[in-house]
Each structure stands twice: as C-alpha cells, then as structure tokens.
Amino acid sequence: DAKTTQPPSMDCAEGRAANLPCNHSTISGNEYVYWYRQIHSQGPQYIIHGLKNNETNEMASLIITEDRKSSTLILPHATLRDTAVYYCIVRDDKIIFGKGTRLHILP
Amino acid sequence: EPEVTQTPSHQVTQMGQEVILRCVPISNHLYFYWYRQILGQKVEFLVSFYNNEISEKSEIFDDQFSVERPDGSNFTLKIRSTKLEDSAMYFCASRVGTTTNTGELFFGEGSRLTVL
Lengths: 107, 116
Prior knowledge:
Chain A has strands at 9-13, 18-23, 32-38, 45-50, 55-56, 61-64, 70-75, 84-91, 101-106. By secondary structure, chain A is mostly beta strands. Chain A has a five-stranded mixed β-sheet with strand order 1-9-8-3-4, with no helix packed on it. A four-stranded antiparallel β-sheet of chain A has the order 2-7-6-5, with no helix packed on it.
C-alpha cells in the first residue's frame, strides 16, 4: 500500500498558487519523495522529487519539512491545464500509486 | 524529447484470447515496468523488469501474465487467456536509474484493452 496520505480533492483558482499537502510520517532515511500527476486518462507524468532539501523546477516547487514527515507540492501559477490527479509517492524501487489528490482549477 | 511509446492504443479482444501489448522504452533506460488502471480506479503496479529478468511483481501478475524484452528495444506484456476483468488501461514505464530509488519513471500513453 501507498505510504502517503493526501486529501482526496482540492480546488484552486486559476492564476493562484496551488499547494498540495502530503503526509509521509513513516518515511525512512533513504526514501525519496516523488510527485506525479495524471491528466484525465493519460499516462502519469513526473513532476518533481526530493530527499530532504527543497527543490524547484520549471513545473513546480517541493517543500519538505525538516523531519521529512510531510511535504507540499506548489504549482506557482495554476492554469486550467493543471487539472489532474496528483500523486505523492515515497519511493523504494517501484512507484506505488495511492488515490492522490484530485485538483480542480477553477476559472 | 525521448518518450515511451506503446502499441496498440486500443485493442478489443474476446475472452480467452491471448493479447500482447508492446512498449518501446526510452533507449538508454535500464528499468522497465508495467502498470494497469481499471476505469475509475487507481494505477496499479504489475511488474518491474531489470537485466532481462523480473525484479518484482504484484499479486495481480499471476501465471496468465508474462513479460519479455525480445530484442533489446521492445518490452512486451502478454496475457495468455484474457478475462473480462483484464479490461483496463495498461501503462508501460521506464527509467534510466543506475540504482534503485532514483530516477523518474517515464510513462507511455497507455494501451486500452477491452475484453468482451
């Protein structure tokens, strides 16, 4: 089973920052936090990952708490195309998907 | 940008028939995966493959399923005798990672299997 807990759904206004939380209280020291998303029925898409430092790329930022028990994915300026299911995953080898957070971007 | 490609995009088959789903992973990738997603449900791990052998498989991946990398570029999933409950979207994925726990997975767009 997935080792993470996410809210089932969230809304965000277009143009605003979307902050998606994730709890992973049982994470071990060498496990990374990965975020993926799935737009409609397309293949899952990698967004970002991190170990303990905050990370930023062209898609998003990842903030990991100091104790590594939770993290937040930030989409800085959400657009309608960011409507998707977002998955927070603690990684050993294979990716195990939970139910994720269904993010609705509101016009 | 390199991508994982899957064929066919949609296959309709009769119950009991054999089906082969094909994937071409990204060329320098070493780890390969199959996942499936039944309509309206979450994405489920089926099998991982490395160094020409299965490294891990889930309970779903029973004797009816097999995987093969026949020629160094294709990665196939075979279902020997399809059942109605095999109807799903099947996703192939690959990653370059030289060790476990690293490297993002790149997913294909999926093959939709409909079993009648």
